[in-house]
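Subject: VOC family protein

B.,
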Amino acid sequence: MNAKATDFVINTVTDLSESVPFYRDILGLELEMLNEEGGFAEFALPPTTLALGEANPQMPVSPGEGGTSIAMAVDDVEAATEELRDEGTTVLMDPVETGVCHMAMVADPDGNPIMLHKRNDGTHGRVDPFP
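Prediction pasted inline below.
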């Protein structure tokens, strides 16, 4: 096998009608595709795509806390965390400074963890876009 790239990252959700407004209106992501009948949505999150897929028998992943999270680059972790808290979003981890970055973690409506992240060196996305 020779993996070439990440085509998209997916979070499994229980209800697109609840999750899409959270990702679009609360997180401010651009909705690129919505297939309500198929239970699938895609958002622009350069350099990749963030997909939401409703839980179903063909998708053997359950919504909620798990071993994965997506890290979204933001300009100000503290401000983003407070903005989301004010919107009623559950904050799973308050902002911390690691010496390399600032980060915090919030939950989407299904409890899927989302990391808010800012590197101290000012970069974001893939460090080496396409080696």
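The first strand starts at residue 9 and ends at 13.

T.
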